[in-house]
Amino acid sequence: MKRVIAAIPGTALLWAGLALPQPLTDPMRPPMLGAPAPGAGRSGPQLQAILIRPTLREAVIDGQPVGIGTRFGDARVARITETEVLLRDEGGGTRVLRLLPLVDKKTAAPAKPGTPAAQGRERTR
Questions:
Q1: Residue 46, Cβ neighbours under 10 Å: how many?
Q2: Model's pTM, two decimal places?
Q3: Contact partners, residue 46, CB within 8 Å, separation at least 6
Q4: Average pLDDT, whole number, for the chain?
Q5: pLDDT above 50: residue 39
Q6: Distance (Å, rounded) from C-alpha 86 to C-alpha 79?
């Protein structure tokens, strides 16, 4: 009986060690679209966010809020769209910063008349 009682603390410690907390992952975090190449670092400014309102377009580049016409480094913000920011330097060169650099935006073809998608649009008024 003394052996059983003496073994209980050791067994409890063993099970406690197996129940260590695991790191939590954010379920709302977007998936990685592509892994960077080994040894590849950031090659310049990074577009972090875009905010578009009816009267204002702003973006956040490397933590700095910018608007159309404002300076960022040695360039000016020339255009802000839903997915990218166009920077134009004093020499006339341009640089496009994309919010999701590994995603290419493509325009969908319009629905052909007679298809369910086209019929659904015709019915809504």
A1: 14
A2: 0.52
A3: 61, 62, 97
A4: 76
A5: no
A6: 5
